[in-house]
Automatic annotation (TrEMBL):
<dbReference type="Pfam" id="PF01844">
    <property type="entry name" value="HNH"/>
</dbReference>
<feature type="domain" description="HNH nuclease">
    <location>
        <begin position="23"/>
        <end position="75"/>
    </location>
</feature>
<dbReference type="GO" id="GO:0003676">
    <property type="term" value="F:nucleic acid binding"/>
</dbReference>
<dbReference type="GO" id="GO:0005829">
    <property type="term" value="C:cytosol"/>
</dbReference>
<comment type="similarity">
    <text>Belongs to the HNH nuclease family.</text>
</comment>
<keyword id="KW-0378">Hydrolase</keyword>
<dbReference type="GO" id="GO:0004519">
    <property type="term" value="F:endonuclease activity"/>
</dbReference>
<protein>
    <recommendedName>
        <fullName>Putative HNH nuclease YajD</fullName>
    </recommendedName>
</protein>
<dbReference type="InterPro" id="IPR002711">
    <property type="entry name" value="HNH"/>
</dbReference>
<keyword id="KW-0540">Nuclease</keyword>
<dbReference type="GO" id="GO:0008270">
    <property type="term" value="F:zinc ion binding"/>
</dbReference>
<dbReference type="GO" id="GO:0016787">
    <property type="term" value="F:hydrolase activity"/>
</dbReference>
<keyword id="KW-0255">Endonuclease</keyword>
<dbReference type="InterPro" id="IPR003615">
    <property type="entry name" value="HNH_nuc"/>
</dbReference>
Length: 116
């Protein structure tokens, strides 16, 4: 993990500690229907700040600045924010395929390993 990305984590870690955040995250989960707003999966959900805490600390606890993302979409967004280039199309395709498989209830039994 790069130094820059660690710095992003450190900033949001201040916010994501404590009961205030927990309540807000539940509101965001409810609003977004307990699914990733980008790909719709219900697994591995994380609460993301649309505008990063680092640059917009005043929006840390603003529900409209929060969105539920799965780990994969969240990682992709963070990569772009810290200035990494997104994954190559081929790698992205592979990830999307994996996610599609996870989402298909006929082939894969629903599990509840999501981290709420
Ligand atoms: Zn997603």
């Amino acid at each position: 993990m790069s130094k820059l990305r660690n710095e992003y984590k450190r900033h949001s870690a201040k916010v994501t500690r404590g009961p205030r955040w927990k309540a807000l995250r539940m509101q965001a989960l409810d609003r977004d229907g307990w699914a990733c707003v980008q790909c719709g999966t219900r697994h591995w959900l994380e609460c993301d700040h649309v505008l990063p805490v680092k640059t917009h600390p005043e929006l840390s606890y603003t529900l409209s600045n929060l969105q539920m993302l799965c780990g994969a979409c969240h990682a992709r967004k963070t990569r772009i924010e810290v200035g990494h280039t997104p994954l190559t199309p081929k790698r992205q395709q592979w990830r999307d395929l994996l996610r599609e498989m996870q989402r298909n209830p006929h082939e894969h039994k629903e599990n509840n390993h999501a981290d709420f």
